Amino acid sequence: MMHTYGITSEDVKRNNRFDITLFKQAVIDAVPVGTKLEPTKLTRLALSLGAKAKKDDLAKKLKAAFMNNNNSQLVRRRSDQGNGYVYEKVSN
Fold it and tell me: What are the pLDDT digits (tens) for 38-90?
């Protein structure tokens, strides 16, 4: 069973369509500080919440969304042994 952090499909939809920016904000708001967010798990979570893109395309879009932290310094990207890279929530 996948951990959804209490995020529902209604939380990440705008005009009945999955919205990556809403998904990113919902994930950041829901996870506790220090949580590692692996890109593959984020992709699976997005697909389970209603994203309709192909898995590879969705992974690229999520990577771009989480890399773009101009407005917020809540999440940072870092290397993780065995996983390549992960995103980590560093503050509220």
Answer: 888 999 999 999 999 899 999 999 988 888 765 567 888 888 877 678 888 88
The token pair at 4 is 């959804």
Amino acid at 68: N
SS3 73: coil
- Beta-sheet strands, E only, within 1-92: 13-14, 17-18, 36-37, 75-80, 84-89
Residue whose pair of structure tokens reads 């809540």 in the numeric block: 74
Given the DSSP bridges, would you call strands 84-89 and 17-18 parallel, antiparallel or unpaired? unpaired
What is the pairing mode between strands 17-18 and 36-37? unpaired
Q: What pTM value is reported for the model? A: 0.85
d(CA 30, CA 91): 12
For residue 57, the Cα-to-chain-centroid distance in whole angstroms is 14
Gap between the Cα atoms of 6 and 31, Å rounded:
9
